[in-house]
């Protein structure tokens, strides 16, 4: 199965967008696709331990539950290094399945191609 890459620019200020992006990534990861979410702008904060929580809407799943399932399915995150550093975030607070990196590492991971989504 081919790779999936989801680009997410929004953090918890738009929890519905975060939920949809996580559901999209989770569908790919749980289907066995190698899956990566590239976090930029405020979305980089989702890679901080304990930060990804809340419920976007009535009937929506808990964001923390989606994060747990995504990690269990082998899903990975790259938090944009420029965005991370501009917010002076602590790399020691990264969740286990995330790394701070940049577009070079994103393209290396993509390799010969991937299905992409952008939120």
Label this structure with key terms.
21% strand; 119 residues; 34% helix; five-stranded parallel β-sheet; single chain; Hypothetical Protein Ychn, Chain: A
Distance from N terminus to C terminus (CA atoms, Å) equals 22 Å
For the CA atoms, what is the radius of gyration? 13 Å
Structural class: alpha/beta
**Order of strands, widest sheet:** 4-3-2-1-5
Output the number of helix runs.
Answer: 4
User: What do we call the CATH topology?
Assistant: Hypothetical Protein Ychn, Chain: A
CATH superfamily: DsrEFH-like
- The rough form would be described as globular
Helix content: 25-40%
Describe this structure in words.
With 119 residues, the chain is of the alpha/beta class. It has one domain: DsrEFH-like (Hypothetical Protein Ychn, Chain: A, 3-Layer(aba) Sandwich). The chain is built from 4 helices and 5 strands. A 5-stranded parallel β-sheet has the order 4-3-2-1-5, sandwiched between helices.
Summarize this structure briefly.
34% of the residues lie in helices and 21% in strands.
Q: What layout of secondary structure does this protein have?
A:
Blueprint: E1 3-8, H1 15-30, E2 35-39, H2 63-72, E3 76-80, H3 81-86, E4 98-101, H4 103-110, E5 114-118
Parallel strand pairs: 1-2, 1-5, 2-3, 3-4
Helix pairs in contact: 1-2
């Amino acid at each position: 199965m081919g790779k999936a890459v989801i680009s997410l620019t929004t953090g918890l200020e738009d929890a519905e967008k975060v939920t949809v992006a996580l559901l999209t990534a989770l569908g790919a990861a749980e289907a066995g696709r190698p899956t990566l979410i590239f976090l930029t702008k405020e979305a980089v904060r989702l890679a901080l331990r304990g930060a990804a929580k809340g419920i976007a809407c009535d009937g929506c799943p808990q964001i923390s539950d989606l994060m747990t399932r995504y990690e269990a399915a082998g899903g990975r995150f790259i938090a944009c290094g420029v965005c991370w550093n501009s917010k002076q975030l602590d790399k020691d607070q990264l969740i286990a399945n995330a790394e701070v990196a940049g577009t070079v590492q994103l393209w290396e991971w993509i390799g010969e191609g991937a299905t992409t989504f952008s939120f």
